[in-house]
Amino acid sequence: MKIVPDTSVVIDGRISRRVESGEYAGATVYVPEAVIGEIEAQANNGREIGWDGLSELQRLAELADAGDIDVEYVGERASEAEIQRASAGAIDAKIRDLAVAHDATFVTSDIVQAEVAKAKGLAVEYLEPEAREVEALAIENYFDESTMSVHLKDGVVPMAKRGDVGNITYQEIGETELDTETLKEYASEIRDTAKRSDDAFIELSEEGMTIAQVRDMRIAIATPPFSDGFEITAVRPIVKTTMADYEHEEDLKERLLERDRGVLIAGAPGAGKSTFAQAVAEFLDDNGYVVKTMEKPRDLQVEEEITQYTELGGSMEKTADSLLMVRPDYTIYDEVRKTDDFEVFSDMRLAGVGMVGVVHATRPIDALQRLVGRVELGMIPQIVDTVVFIEDGDVDTVYNVTTEVKVPEGLMEEDLARPVIQVTDFETGTPAYEIYTFNRQVVTVPLDGENGASESGVDKLAKNEIEREIRSATRGPVEVELRSGNEAVAYVTEDDISHVIGKGGGRIQDIENRLGVTIDVRTFEDKPDHADAPSDGGSERGGAGGADASEVGGEVVTPEITGQHIIIPVTEASPGETVEVRADGEYLCTATVGRGGEIQISRGSAIAEELERAIDRELLVTVVRE
């Protein structure tokens, strides 16, 4: 008997097993060099299937040495380009040609390969891919009913997170330190099970990291040099909930069923966000909606009717494009973290798909702020109209997000009306935040219930903006006191007062018109506590080099002045994150980090002029995360 195996049956070890069982006893096995090249490439890329294939080739060599079979290596080695195009059939064609040349039976467990070979008149033996039930893994012995995750590392005693949702503790669950060989045995069992079982799969296989899903467990296997030691982490849900298990259940159900929504489920790690997302998915499915998920890795524990998708071709954008063809009513996106994720979430929502995204956030408003800078401000309520904050496994806060053209709370002049995103408590209807553009900056202002802005909100914002505008016309220090929502007093030096007021009061009138605030300009001598007024030393912040990093905190940055912008590179804050820009520790402005990891401030604005003066004085410019 003469056979030519393809890559699929070499990888799964089917040839050596059939030799040992007697079915291929005495056969001549023609091993294509193209198969060897493909397997070697897979092993070099750190893929376990490559190593499995190499093990099978070694077993065939041992069987040949024992005289059970004859093994011949035939054909040409596949080129790098052919290996890269393996999925398009480049290597399959070479293998089929060798079966014809040697008048051998072509053996495969690839149904497409088998059908093509039959169509070409080859003798074909199709071996159905093997599947077996998932047996208990050795790592499962570390779990009990209260265990959420198990953490195993060489040289360390076994650790686990155990307890109830909202009361999880990280604790030792063994006394003996683990060794590398034990962990390798666990890893081999996990990989083998994930590849061969219908109830498991390999989610990610890269050099140094393998992520497998086995039943309800997500298992990550990290190896050097990616990690500093051999490590296995297994996570599983400890509870499965329904909407009935949560606060505001009826209101949330009614809201979700009213129309397709854009929802962000936010909370700290371990708070129970994904558990709530699973409950939402099954509730929508039970009510006749077509529900899909987008996950990497796929670990939501949902019913079979809900199809779970991961990255397509390494891209969630491609997954989204495919889902738009399927047209689900709702898509659960777990997790939305990077700018690309927010863009995909936004695109699908604007295309009319109901979206539920899972986001890490320590406050409810932080989830919404992560959209700032990633999408146009006015589009946010069309993308997200509901924020659900999960804490200690239950719904803590629900925000309703709308937009309205109005004068922001705390400001008075009618000509200051603008689009304002209003964030209100869903249960009480109480205003919580307003988000809008003020003097070319996006600001998020906390509100004091129904009575408007808090002292630290609009008042602080207005004071900073007035100081900034006045400083654009001064060389000395500036202090501002707010008298009411639309009145303020600005104190400057005697030398600066004429520059601030301008000819015929024109300059101060322009500032008042821009800010919608009446400003009374006075000297420090008119200030009741003028003895404590800052001395005329060029700036109330001190002279050049007046502060160092240890005094002011934050990330020290070096702004770059271009023809149209001042560009501030930021490395310690993520794109979309809101930060404060300071000079020698004094507040300059609040800004949002752009996609390129930088802040751009248009030259000619009051903020830019103040920043340029700070740069000229060699003040220490820092960026502080809020």
Explain what this protein looks like in three dimensions.
This protein has 626 residues and is α/β, with parallel strands linked by helices. The chain folds into five domains: 2-126, Rossmann fold (3-Layer(aba) Sandwich), CATH 3.40.50; 138-235, Beta-Lactamase, CATH 3.30.450.90; 243-451, Rossmann fold (3-Layer(aba) Sandwich); 456-532, 2-Layer Sandwich (GMP Synthetase, Chain A, domain 3), CATH 3.30.300; 549-625. Strands 15-14-16-17-13-18-19-20-21-22 form a ten-stranded mixed β-sheet, with helices on both faces. The chain has a seven-stranded antiparallel β-sheet with strand order 8-7-6-12-11-10-9, covered by helices on one side. A five-stranded parallel β-sheet has the order 3-2-1-4-5, with helices on both faces. A hairpin with a 2-residue loop joins strand 23 (479-484) and strand 24 (487-492). It is elongated and about 110 Å long. The chain starts with a strand and ends with a strand. Mean pLDDT is 83; it is low at 449-457 and 536-545. One of its GO terms (molecular function) is RNA binding. Residues 522-551 are annotated as: Disordered. Residues 259-384 form the AAA+ ATPase domain.
